[in-house]
Amino acid sequence: MINSEKGGIPINTKDVLLLLTDKWADWEASYAITEVNSVKTIALDKTSKSSIGGLRAEIDVSIEEYSDLSNLALVILPGGFSWQDNRYEEIAQFVKKVMEQEIPIAAICGATVFLGKHGLLDHVKHTGDDFSFFENQEGYQGATNFLEAQVVRDKNIITANETAAIEFVYKIYQVLEIDEPKELEDWYDYFKNGLIRE
After folding, report:
1. Residue-range definition of the domain harbouring residue 179
2. Cα(16)–Cα(41) distance, integer angstroms
3. How many structural domains compose the chain?
């Protein structure tokens, strides 16, 4: 386990928001919320959201209620089935406001495409599941910044593809500075390569 008492950001007092939609990908956020002990769930409304695996999550705060960003450390957008079928204009406006305050955003899988179709990745290097998902989105103009990679961190934006949950959370832990770099490196090596190495 990582010692979350260390690090530059006082995790116990700063909010980390887990932004949920219906049919969210629970496994893509699981490692992140394990070590960060100040996670709050946020959504368009306060109706509980069911994950792809059937896990029902209560919502702590709605986007409309969360207007003061002064205590916000990072926003995590897990993937899920509903990103493709909905434009979620209110979520896009919220994310844009967060980005304008230079607060980190971490998106994985379908959530990266959501950011892309709203033009929020046009000027940062980024990745996702497959470039074809991006190029077919009206409003996406970030083709020159797309990278074939497991995870990409550029400026305050972290993006990852659906097979990169470990890499994704490793970047999140680095941004939040929840432990010393060597401890984070050891954590990544352990969970990426396993206890038993053949």
Report:
1. 15-185
2. 9
3. 1
* Matching residue, tokens 């969970």: 191
Identity of the amino acid at 178: I
3-class secondary-structure state, position 172: helix
pTM > 0.85: yes
Q: Of 18, 95, 99, 109, which is the active-site residue?
A: 109
Collapse the DSSP code of 17 into the 3-class scheme (helix H, G, I; strand E, B; otherwise coil) and give the result.
strand
Structural domain contains residue 7? no
Residues 6+ apart with CB under 8 A from 16: 32, 36, 38, 39, 40, 73, 74, 75, 76, 176
Q: What is the mean pLDDT for each group of 10 consecutive residues in the chain (198 residues)?
A: 50 85 94 86 98 96 97 97 94 98 98 97 97 94 98 97 97 94 96 92
What CATH number is given to the structural domain containing 62? 3.40.50.880
Residue 105 φ/ψ, nearest 5 degrees: -125, 135
Residue 184: what pLDDT?
96
190, with CB counted inside 10 A (0-12, 13-18, 19+), is exposed
Please indicate, yes or no, if residue 195 is contained in any of the structural domains: no
Q: Is 139 inside a domain boundary?
A: yes
Whose CA is closest to 51, among 112, 102, 109, 128?
109
What does the alpha-carbon distance between residue 162 and residue 112 come to, in Å, rounded to a whole number? Answer: 10
**Quick check: is 109 catalytic?**
yes
